[in-house]
Design goal:
Distance between the termini: 52 Å
Number of helices: 32
Structural class: alpha/beta
Oligomer: single chain
CATH architecture of the largest domain: Orthogonal Bundle
CATH topology of the largest domain: N-(1-d-carboxylethyl)-l-norvaline Dehydrogenase, domain 2
Number of strands: 23
Helix content: 40-55%
């Protein structure tokens, strides 16, 4: 059974967001809630939630998807669920309410439909208690993480009663249409991600109170420095909501054995209780551990329980974490190092003690924390990564616990005695199972990462900027490896070699890797250094090389497919614009953002956006509007909020694919490349058709409007004037322009075709000249420095 129609019961924050994401995945959705007492509109709760999401909750990947949701209520519209394939329950966490609801749903649902609960605290066995056998067979837990659109993890809990074929069907929909990584968890309190992730934060608070560690230091260490979210633990608790943190913690304390570490959370639970009494609930209240006061960010002093200004903190562990990594930071004998060890050693020890209770696969634990809490590495991967050439991470960690007379969980002891939690042999990766053996990690044919294809292999070409890999079937993959995948001359050294190599030894090229973001574009550090030396020749040279390389990829004798995911900024967007096709993850933020640093796109971005927008513009009127659209797009430094919006912005053109699941992007890119191979010939060279004078008149009016409306600075005005020159063939004679413009518009209204065409090379020259004129200004250099 293919899932086409779904339903969500409960139109609260989580339920409505789940409904929105189901609509993002292409399903028709029924959203129902109770009838409020005395309400004139009996479906007001579901309708209000839908309207709220339409207005800017970012729950939708495209505004049009809201049309797929039909709001209603549980009294009048229950029969509308009769043809739903999957019904998600997201109501209050009370067993009696949930069970009563399931019985009502059972009377109207069709045979074979799935009912799942979004609960994060109630076990499946309790939900099923007392329900009819057939209903128990069709009931499971699908625990989404907030926000459902952005968070990749979905925890699924099933039991022996569930029908395997039915569950497999549901899994396929969740993975392909909702883009989720499914982690199967045992039916235990808190499942996997919350059980460990909430403990990590609460134990971090517990130890910060006990050791009098300032919040700034705690969040620097337990943030980006050691591979956790940049919010750190206190910023993340504010984001989640301190009342929700406390509710989950209490629920786990009520349901976990007396010897579980959750029962050691005395100081932290009491501290949160006091904060909530003071309406300090985090971002949704009057602040939490952080708050904004008169525009300034303040932080809570854990000892004094008063807000104060943020202070810069210094600690040896922070520097060691950046330079030497996780292992060294935990062994640092400083206040921060001792704090980091106290928090992370207990979290890691706890994580290893939960296998096989919460799951019998360590991979499930690692995936849950990476996709549910945005950790760079899961707990078992962290331990593995803390090793070195002399000692495995598991041996080091087990030894460190032993030195401190702490219990060593069984699976950690097994890992210390063997080759660690993970090992690689050839092209395969293995994980340690609970019996002490190793099991291969299976990689689906349609859902692979670059690391899966290249494990055990050597790159075809490599330098400091990246690597070229053979990914099979005659397709090569170019991977960028610089920080933030930024691009400079080393990148172009590689690209030039890659083009020659693919010409001789391969059939096609894809560009992408496993990173969270595609690329931040041009290496601004290099540009700023050259500015300080007034080395304008080097800046112009890198502009020319970028233009030459992206044009070489556009007209290469083989298909080139770019991969879009995360952020693709400036020069990276320009690269994608020159590709034959793009394989994009739905969560792709792509755009030409150069005006934000006081320049204009100069690796062909203006040129390609003109060409993309002018295709199909057959008369002068539509050509003028196309150029106007491009001017505003670049002037706004607009970044797509999704791949679907990138399509509307004409960044994605004829050949593209959008994947809901990040792990499908490279496979789709390869498939696109293979499709393009059949009879592939490079595109013909193009000319941009520009109604020169009319364009310039419109651009100048738009600049005047922005002066009045947005109060832009003189320098920002100059940037837009330079952009206007690029998009109007450098025409800079106002008097002549006015006269020609009137003639052009008159001719346009008379349906006469009077535009002028300009070559790609001429447009590239204009881009470069505009960039060079702007980069020499101190205002632009100040903007770049501020961004960096």
């Amino acid at each position: 059974m293919t899932i086409q129609k779904t339903a969500v019961i409960g139109a609260g924050t989580m339920g409505s967001a789940i409904a929105a994401h189901m609509a993002n995945g292409g399903a028709e959705v029924i959203l129902l809630d109770i009838v409020p007492e005395g309400a004139n509109d009996r479906s007001i709760l579901a309708k209000k939630s839908l309207e709220k999401m339409k207005k800017g909750s970012h729950a939708f990947t495209h505004s049009k998807h809201a049309e797929r949701i039909t709001p209603g209520n549980l009294e009048d519209d229950l029969e509308s669920l009769s043809d739903a394939d999957w019904i998600v329950e997201a109501v209050v966490e009370k067993l009696d309410i949930k069970r009563d609801l399931y019985k009502k749903l059972d009377k109207v649902r069709k045979d074979g439909s799935v009912i799942s609960s979004n609960t994060s605290t109630l076990p499946l066995k309790q939900l099923k208690e007392g329900l009819p056998d057939k209903l128990q067979q069709d009931l499971c837990i699908t625990h989404f993480f907030n926000p459902p659109r952005k968070m990749q993890l979905l925890e699924m809990i099933t039991d022996a009663q569930n029908d395997n074929r039915q569950i497999k069907n549901l899994e396929t929909f969740i993975e392909t249409k909702l883009g989720k990584t499914i982690v199967h968890a045992n039916d235990t309190p808190g499942f996997i991600a919350n059980r460990i992730g909430i403990f990590w934060m609460m134990w971090g608070l517990e130890q910060a109170i006990k050791r009098e560690v300032p919040i700034e230091l705690a969040d620097q260490l337990l943030g980006k420095s050691l591979g956790f979210p940049k919010t750190g633990i206190f910023g993340l608790m504010d984001l989640i909501g301190l009342d929700l943190m406390l509710d989950i913690t209490r629920s786990l304390q009520d349901n976990l054995p007396d010897d579980d570490p959750y029962h050691k959370l005395d100081k932290s639970v009491k501290f949160l209780e006091e904060m909530i009494e003071n309406d300090q609930k985090g971002n949704k209240g009057d602040g939490g551990f952080y708050r904004k006061k008169n525009g300034d960010k303040q932080v809570l002093d854990l000892k004094e329980k008063q807000y104060r200004s943020l202070e810069k903190v210094e600690d040896e562990a922070i520097d060691v974490a950046k330079s030497k990594g996780f292992h060294a930071a935990l062994e640092t004998e400083s206040k921060g190092g001792n704090y980091a060890w106290a928090v992370l050693s207990e979290m890691l020890r706890y994580s290893t003690s939960l296998v096989p209770d919460v799951t019998d696969k360590i991979t499930s634990v690692d995936e849950a924390l990476k996709d549910g809490f945005n950790w760079n590495l899961g707990p078992f991967e962290m331990i593995a990564a803390s090793g070195n050439a002399r000692i495995s991470g598991s041996s080091w960690f087990a030894g460190s616990l032993k030195e401190r007379n702490r219990d060593i969980p069984d699976i950690l002891q097994k890992a210390a005695e063997k080759q660690g939690f993970y090992k690689e042999e050839g092209n395969s990766r293995y994980y340690l199972d609970v019996d002490g053996g190793y099991q291969a990690i299976e990689v689906p044919d349609d859902s692979w990462q670059l690391c899966d294809k290249v494990r055990g292999k050597s790159p075809v070409i490599e330098n400091e900027a990246g690597k070229l890999w053979d990914v099979g079937n005659g397709i090569a993959c170019l991977q960028f490896t610089t920080k933030f995948d930024t691009m400079d001359n080393t990148t172009f050294d590689l690209v030039e070699q890659v083009i020659d190599k693919v010409k001789s030894d391969f059939k096609g090229l894809i560009i992408g890797d496993d990173d969270k973001h595609f690329s931040a574009g041009l290496n601004l550090h290099k540009i700023l250094n050259w500015c300080k030396k007034e080395d304008w020749e080097s800046i112009e040279a890198i502009l020319k090389r970028g233009q030459k390389n992206w044009m070489a990829l556009k007209y290469a004798p083989f298909p080139v497919v770019g991969c879009a995911y995360g952020k693709a900024l400036g020069g990276a967007c320009e690269l994608l614009l020159h590709c034959d096709a793009v394989s994009a993850h739905i969560e792709s933020n792509i755009g030409l953002v150069e005006v934000n640093i006081g320049v204009v796109p100069s690796w062909g971005g203006c040129k390609e956006m003109l060409l993309h927008n002018l295709r199909g513009a057959s008369d002068a009127n539509s050509q003028i509007h196309a150029a106007e659209r491009v001017f505003n797009f670049i002037a706004d430094a607009k970044l797509s909020s999704s791949a679907e919006e990138a399509k509307d912005m004409r960044i994605l053109r004829k050949y593209y694919r959008i994947s809901m699941n990040r792990n499908h992007v490279l496979n789709e890119a390869k498939a696109l490349c293979l499709e393009l191979l059949d009879g592939y010939t490079p595109p013909d060279s193009e000319k941009a058709v520009i109604p020169l004078a009319a364009n310039r008149l419109i651009f100048d009016k738009e600049i005047e409007l922005r002066e009045r409306r947005d109060n832009i600075s003189n320098h920002d005005k100059r940037v837009l004037q330079c952009l206007a020159l690029v998009l109007s063939d450098g025409n800079n004679d106002p008097k002549a322009m006015q006269e020609i413009a009137l003639e052009t518009i008159k001719a346009r209204d008379g349906d006469e075709d009077v535009p002028t065409s300009i070559s790609e090379e001429d447009l590239l020259d204009l881009e470069r000249k505009a960039f060079m004129a702007l980069i020499k200004s101190q205002e632009t250099q100040n903007k770049i420095e501020k961004v960096l």
